[in-house]
Amino acid sequence: MITLAVDAMGGDSGLAVTVPGALAFLKQQQDVHLIMVGDESAVRQALSAANAPMERITVLHASEVVGMDEAPQLALKNKKDSSMRIAINQVKEGTAQAAVSAGNTGALMATARFVLKTIPGIDRPAIAKFLPSDSEHLTLALDLGANVDCTPEQLVQFAIIGNELFQALYPQKGSPRIGLLNVGTEDIKGTDTVKQTFKLLKSSKLNFIGNIESNGVLYGEADVIVADGFVGNIMLKTIEGAVKFMSGAIRQEFQRNLFNKMAAVAALPALKGLKSKLDPRKFNGAILLGLRGIVIKSHGGTDDVGFSYALEEAYHEAKSASLSKIEQGVAEQFAALEAIKAEQAAQEAQQAEETKV
């Protein structure tokens, strides 16, 4: 049985979204128990009104709620009894295998990092998300907004944890292709940080395929795409905006005149398929990757369908035991990196001696 802790009060709409989203999720997955955290009276009332299967739900009281515009550090310091904090505590205490919240992103990241800590060797957690692609599986992208300034070493850390998560969820795919998001594919392009990251990744034992441009992200050119949070977030928001623009433009064209409306009827099956494939709600649920616990961030403005997909993401990660696999894989990758550094240092020392002679 998988147990998920849910911040029932988080997000723009709170219980109006989290309760129906949780119930839809429970209908899909039978081996799950939910801990709904929030104002107990309000949560129970919402669950009762929705005829929730209470034998599969535990309600845990929280006296506080973190506001969507609240400063992360203030929320961490002053809201110790918030629904967000208590949900994350369930993961630390082992009561739940994962926590899900649609609340304040900054507060969620700060709280999760404080409560759960990071995996040894990882300086900062990153926001990671699976994006649609035209290949047979999804593409993992990170960081998508948690760290706007990163060192080359931290970007390599993101590549390592992304590599390990992908292998944990898709073991049959083998070693994932790692791409570094850049303004060009040539290794001489990009900022000094990106160039240094390129060199480090190239010397690692990861399956690094080089730089990748943003126009190749949705074409499955890489399995894991690495960027700092500034660049990654801009890429993500641009993709989301482009999808919304295309959907609106197609709708307008088919409504332009009678002929186009008739054509829309004939194209309806294809249009439904396209809408389903690009539905952003299906990709809701970003992973706070690098923590010693599974925490999933749902979009604050999502609806109940989107929230149920965030719960699905948490469920699949918990069921695959991704965290233990990631921790083991990270340790092995860092050991390999240290061995490579030692070998390079020895070679440089030998070259220096030969130069003296």
General description of the model:
Helix 1 links the parallel strand 1 (2-7) and strand 2. The termini are far apart. The chain has 357 residues and is of the alpha/beta class. The mean pLDDT is 90. It has an 11-stranded mixed sheet, sandwiched between helices. The chain has helices spanning 15-28, 40-49, 72-78, 83-92, 105-116, 152-169, 192-203, 229-254, 258-266, 268-278, 304-319, 322-356; strands at residues 2-7, 32-38, 57-61, 98-101, 126-131, 139-142, 178-181, 208-212, 224-226, 286-289, 294-297. The chain is built from 12 helices and 11 strands. 50% of the residues lie in helices and 15% in strands. The protein folds into 2 domains: 1-117 and 291-320, Isopropylmalate Dehydrogenase (3-Layer(aba) Sandwich); 131-281, Isopropylmalate Dehydrogenase, CATH 3.40.718.
